[in-house]
Structures are given as structure tokens and as C-alpha cells.
Amino acid sequence: MSSGKLTEKYRIAAESVRGWVVYRDYELVSWLFLRALGLIYLIAFASLMVQIKGLVGEQGIMPVGSLLEYVTSVTGSERYFVLPTIFWLAHNNLVLVGVALYGCVVSLQIIFNRWLQPALIIAFVLYLSLYNVCQPFLHFQWDGLLLEAGFLAIFLGSRSSIIIWLFRVLLFKLRFMSGLSKLTSGDAQWSGLTALNTYFEVQPLPNPLAWYVHQLPELVLRAGTAATLFIEILVPFMMFMPRRWRFVAAWLTILWQVLIILTSNHNWINLLTIALCLFLFDDRALRRVVPINIEPAQMTVAIKDSLATKLRTLLLSAMALFILVISFAELWILSTRTAVFEPLGTVIDYMESYRVVNKYHVFPTMTTERIELELSGSIEGETWKVYRFKYKPGDLDQRPRLVMPHQPRLDWQMWFVTLRPKHLPWFEEFLYALLDNSPHVKDLLANDPFPDEAPRYIRVDAYKYTFTTPEQREQTGNWWNKEALGPFLPLPGVMRSE
Fold it and tell me: Rounded to whole angstroms, how far apart are CA atoms 101 and 116?
């Protein structure tokens, strides 16, 4: 063997033994993932930028200032650690929009590979700051997933194989926890394989194709439910198996995410899940379908590790151990429904504010009815004008909208109001914002029934919505049927006090 080949062989072996270098096998994988992450960050920041004043602005539904005052009164000097956010410095509308806009800028830096690691750090800090002040409007699993993936991406530039494995663990958690939660919830829709019989109709924001898929034979929908459980519970274990098994796991996961994208408006969570699947491949596999040549990073290999290298490896190993312990604890809580011992539970509670490690349970239970709330305003209590939302079902002949990857946070939140009492406080604040004729809140809606004078009364009525059958749609042209259920009893209406 020539000395050149021997040197190359020794170099690769040395890198493998050291364990922290991601050499040529993952150069393309890392490059593609970071470009995808930058795009998803851009979507998330841009989507929030056009809504944030109405959600948590100075005249929004739940103003940031009120939250910060409350946290200060409860926690005192610990507030900066309990609620980590840059908005402690300032939180007016200009600052809120400016932070989201700057998030778009650093997202572009990530996409175009400019000042990459600083951009990744800034993007994480900005999105975490927004997450912690946007209260229920940003407290979704995909927001936590973006933060967890974004945090790991900061260290991907260090070319550590530890980070590659942590990304695989993250994908495993996302998929397996989602499947396990469906079983441990005891929900009859999943155990009876009937979840997809109603899912396409009752999901938060159906898209146009959802109506057609809802009409499929029950046998097909039951098979789809069984396949969902298989892909979420068994396939994730293939992610830690030899190379070809990982490829199978990746393609099955990607296939299912594409089907969800085609039939749902789940913003960008499915795009991020597909991006995470990249870590189940390697460069040799990806080059068959992605004809991009990435120059391997220049690296100097020494026979003896430097002190800086050893320190980096030690820190990454400690971080990985911490993430794995917390992840296992959350998996234990999810599977056994029992708490972990107190010190570890305290750490988990504390880490909730930083979103470095999260638990995932996508649709663990499935509702069987779609209850929509219709809001009407009146000045004198006799003539009522209806508020229309931009994306959620309203007029019966209105075709479901294609929304993703944008997430209209208000429309999405409305889906939860009839399901969980904990959402009533923000909903009541929303009604009072309408009574105040807040311009930024009204911008979140499709119409403005009271452009000149604020209403004095707001009425809330509940309706049951169901998809029409093909025959009904052919006769009426409607996509929806609507059945009146009467006033929404928890909050039948509110009145503006003088």
C-alpha cells in the first residue's frame, strides 16, 4: 500500500477513534440540515412577525408587559432565570416586531452560510425569547422541537459525532414519544384503530385535500391508523440499527410526513421532521439523490489531542449525558405516568424555560366532534354582526384553506377552547380586546364588523361542524354541514363595562 493511502487510512481511523469529528461521511448531511434549519427558522420568525402585535403586543390579547409584571411579582430577582427572554430590556410593539424581523435576517445568514455559528446562537436566543413571552400562542411542540434542534445545531459546526447521535435521539424521541403517548393515553380512537375516521374532519385547520381523504372507505382509514402506530412506535428503533435499516426508517418516516403535509395544515413541524431524517443517512447515500459537492472542511489531525480538543470532547460528552438522562426521565414519566425522584423532577421543571430538552406527544387523544365558536358583536344588544376568522371553518361553502407552512396562531388556538378549560383565560382576554376595538387584534381576523364604534356586547355561540358527503356537496356546493348547539356556556358572552 502506498504511503499516501496509508496516511489517509490512518487519518480516518484516528478521527474515528477520537470520536468527536464528523468527517466526510457527514459533511453533506450537516450542510443540508443547516440550510433546511435556516429555512424553517425563517418561516417561523416571518409567520410570527405578522401576528405578534395582535397576540402579545401593547394592545394585544395577552400583552408581554402584563406577563413580565406578574413574573416579577412572583419570582423577584430570579425572574431572569425563570423566564429567560431579551424582552426584559424592552417589549413595546416596535421591539417585538424588530426581534422577529431580526430573526428573519439571521435565518438568511444560516441559509447562505454567513457567520454561521453566531447566527445559530442568535436565532436560538431570539426564538427562545419569543417562546417565553408569547405564552399559549407559542407553547406548541413544534416550537419546542425547533428550539431543541436549533440548540444542537449550534454545536454541529464543531463536527462532533456526538451531535449526530443526539440528533438521531431527538428524532427518535419525537416519533416514539408521539406513538407511545397514543397508547398510554388509553384513547379508544387509537386502540380501536378509528382515529383517522374523524381526524381529517376534526383537525385544527383542515386543508382542501382533507375533505377528499375523509371520504375514503373505513377499511383504508383503519389501515392508515395502524400504519401510523407502526411507524411511530416500532420504526424509531430502526434508527439505531445498521446503515440500511436506518435508511428504511428514514424513508418510512419521510413518506408519512409527506402524507401529513398533503392532508393537513401543520405548519412546519413535518418539514423539520423530514430535515431531522437526514441524520439517518450519510454522504455516500445522499450523493445519489443530491448532486451537490461540498468541500470537506479543512482540519488538522495530530497524533495527540490538544487540551482544547479534550476539553471540547469532555463538554460535549457531559451535555450529551445530561440530555440523555433528562430524555429518559421524560420517557419514563410518559410511559409509566409516575413522577421521577424529586431532584431530577426539579431539574426537568427548571429546564422547561430553556427548551433544550422536550417531551413530545402529538395528538395522544383524538376528539370525535368538531365544535366551532362563532363570535358576534352588538352595540345596542339587538343587531348582531359576526366576526370571521381568516382560516378556520366559517361559511359552509368556503373551501378549507391551504395554510402551511404559515401558522395562524389565533385560528389554531380557537380549536382548543372547547376542549380544555385552561384555554378559557386567554379566550376571555380575546373577547375583551374585541370590546376595546383593538386594531392589532382585529388585524388577526378576516373582517372588521365595527370599524368606527366599538361593540358593547360580544356573544359566543357553539356549532357542530361536519364535512358534507359527496352527494350533499354536489347538491349544495357546501364543504361543511353546521348544527347549532346554543350559547357556549363557559363564556356565553361578555359586556364592556363603562
Answer: 18
Residue 81 Cα to chain centre, angstroms: 23
Those residues whose C-beta lies under 8 Å from the C-beta of residue 391, and which sit 6 or more positions away, are 205, 265, 401, 403, 408, 411
Predicted local confidence at residue 94, as pLDDT: 97
Distance between CA atoms of residues 440 and 13, nearest Å: 60
| Block residue for cell numbers 352527494 | 471
The reported pLDDT for the residue numbered 493 is 66
Helix (H, G, I), strand (E, B) or coil at 285: helix
Hey, what's the cell of 218? 373505513
**Phi/psi-derived region of residue 214, left when phi > 0, alpha when psi is between -120 and 50, beta in every other case:** alpha
Question: CB under 8 Å to 448, separation ≥6 — which residues?
Answer: 442
In the block, cell 444542537 appears at: 152
- Using CA atoms, how far apart are residues 382 and 375, in angstroms rounded to an integer? 15
CA-based nearest residue to 32, from 299, 276, 296, 236: 276
pLDDT at 497: 53
The DSSP code sequence of 393-414 is --STTPPPP--TT---HHHHHH
Sign of the CA dihedral running 178, 328, 253, 393: positive
CA pair distance 54, 223, nearest whole angstrom: 42
Rounded distance, CA 81 to CA 76, Å?
10
pTM given for the model: 0.90
Give how far Cα 426 sits from Cα of 44, 78, 104, 310, 416, Å.
22, 25, 28, 50, 11
Q: Give yes or no for a contact between 81 and 74, defined as CB atoms under 8 angstroms apart.
A: no
As averages over each run of 10 residues, the pLDDT of the chain (498 residues) reads 46 40 70 96 97 96 95 89 93 96 97 93 97 92 95 81 93 95 91 94 95 96 96 96 95 97 93 97 87 54 58 87 87 78 76 84 89 94 93 93 93 91 89 94 94 92 96 95 91 63
